[in-house]
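The instructor's notes for this session suggest beginning with a concrete chain rather than abstract definitions. Hand out the sequence below and ask the class to guess, before any prediction is shown, which regions might be ordered.
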Amino acid sequence: METSNNYESELKDFDNKGPEKKIPLILLIVIAILVIAIGIMGYKLYENSKELKQSHEASVLLKGEKVELESKLNSLINEYDSLMTQNDSINILLQTEQEKIKRLLKYRASDATKIVMYKKELETLRNVMRSYIVQIDSLNTKNLELTAENVKVRGRLREVESDKEKLSVEAEELSSQVLLASVLTAKNINIYPLNKNSKPKDKVSKVVKIKSCFTVRENAIAEAGTKDIFMRIIRPDDIVLTSDISNNFDYNGEKVVYSAMRQLEYENKDIDMCIFWDRDEDLIPGIYTIILYCEGFEIGYATFALK
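After discussion, reveal the predicted structure:
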């Protein structure tokens, strides 16, 4: 009886212990798998979150650098504007570089590689600008030197022109003096109103001819050769006696009527000559004036009276 109770007791213990050993093992395996899966998922979520954060920070950084580069490029455009000179060749080069900058500003840089390229282009443009600054400074220096030299040259030119004007004035004065010195003059002018028998008469009714005799003076400066001597006889009422109104010569830029003319072969020494005027106009009583001309100059005059 006692043995039977022990046997039942062992069977009961065995039944109780068997299921308790199998269920926890399965649960442990399931739990372990879940824990591992959760851990893996958590790690991946952490890594994804970290990458997103880094990507956002990188994007913000790239955007900031792009804005800064664009600002520098705009500033560079203004600097190129300030370099414009009066040299057309350099201005064309400067405008070409400005166009490059404007194309860069239109370019959309979206990653680090492009930003690096952007920076290199900016540095290249700055280096180009520095070389232009050197060229422009050199040109400005040369321009200043040329300007100073031009001032000196203009000063010397003004001096030369002033000297030339003085010489021209002196030459004109000398020429005028020579011209005046070369003008012929008449002396010993005698007027003879003549009647039909060539006898001197002073009555208006008797005079048929007027004779003027004089001496053309010696002049070593005057040019020798044939000279036209013009005579004007002016009545008391200022009428010029002439046989033909087409008889005229140039005097002080005007055509002047003359009474009679005779040619003279001048040889730079005193020479006597006479000019005659045949009456073909009315004469009136009063004082008459005779004026002699040669080569556009008055060379002598005399007066006589008729009754």
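Then share the key points. DSSP finds three helices and ten strands in the chain. The mean pLDDT is 75.
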